[in-house]
């Protein structure tokens, strides 16, 4: 009898743990999505895939906190820019900012691939956040060209809909409840210029935007006009 009780307890515990590990889904999936490819393969074929819809799978290797950017690569600690894809979250009208805890989570993203010419200021800010080596900083001192997906749909295991942030900020809610600490501290939305690619850059949470006096993080990012929502499975 005791053995049965222990077995039941173990099963219940596993069920609880499984229930806690959901999958965040953001945006609208493609009706004719191509076969999923690794980030490294997509980058290698970027010349042929540019301007075309892609489905990329991998691990989130970096998150730009407070801005709709993150990386997908083959491993969480990837630093080689030729082995990863930069994702600009265009789903949820470009308002989905992932928390830093998203790093290491498995993700699948769908969207149009392009080669993004990241300006020098943005590249410096980006590489500093990644903890890039001096050699990498010198290599991309004049800016860098990276494979970018404007994701209109994504799935991330281990996150929930509430992790798709700034729902309480630019959407008209209370910035005090936003996941971006700068919004909470000031009581004002700090990302309007970068979330929509407009503005003078002074309002943004990005130091690169402030220094440049214009938005340098979301150039060429186009968001869908129709409203979409986030959900969790």
Any chance you could write out the topology, listing elements then pairs?
Blueprint: H1 2-20, E1 23-27, E2 37-38, H2 39-44, H3 46-49, E3 53-64, E4 69-73, E5 85-89, E6 106-118, H4 120-130, H5 134-139, E7 144-157, H6 181-186, H7 192-195, H8 207-212, E8 230-232
Q: What do you see in this structure?
A:
- The chain has helices spanning 2-20, 39-44, 46-49, 120-130, 134-139, 181-186, 192-195, 207-212, and strands at residues 23-27, 37-38, 53-64, 69-73, 85-89, 106-118, 144-157, 230-232.
- It has 233 residues and is of the alpha+beta class.
- Strands 3-4-5-7-6 form a 5-stranded mixed β-barrel.
- Strand 3 and strand 4 form a beta hairpin.
- The radius of gyration is 19 Å and the shape is globular.
- It starts with a helix and ends with a strand.
- The model is unreliable at 1-20, 166-173, 192-200 and 217-233 (pLDDT under 50).
């Amino acid at each position: 009898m005791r053995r049965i009780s222990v077995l039941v307890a173990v099963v219940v515990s596993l069920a609880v743990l499984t229930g806690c590990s959901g999958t965040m889904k953001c945006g609208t999936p493609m009706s004719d999505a191509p076969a999923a490819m690794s980030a490294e393969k997509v980058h290698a074929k970027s010349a042929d895939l540019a301007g075309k819809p892609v489905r990329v799978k991998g691990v989130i290797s970096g998150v730009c906190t407070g801005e709709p950017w993150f990386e997908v690569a083959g491993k969480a600690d990837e630093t080689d820019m030729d082995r990863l894809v930069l994702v600009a979250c265009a789903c949820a009208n470009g308002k989905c900012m992932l928390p830093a805890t998203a790093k290491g989570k498995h993700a699948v993203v769908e969207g149009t691939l392009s080669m993004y010419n990241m300006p020098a200021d943005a590249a410096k800010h980006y590489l500093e956040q990644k903890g890039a080596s001096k050699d990498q900083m010198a290599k991309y001192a004049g800016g860098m060209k990276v494979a970018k997906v404007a994701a209109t749909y994504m799935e991330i295991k281990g996150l929930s809909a509430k992790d798709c942030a700034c729902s309480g900020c630019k959407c008209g809610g209370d910035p005090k409840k936003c996941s971006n600490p700068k919004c909470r501290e000031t009581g004002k939305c700090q990302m309007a210029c970068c979330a929509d690619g407009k503005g003078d850059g002074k309002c943004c949470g990005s130091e690169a935007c402030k220094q440049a006096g214009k938005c340098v993080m979301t150039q060429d990012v186009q968001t869908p006009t129709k409203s979409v929502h986030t959900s969790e499975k």
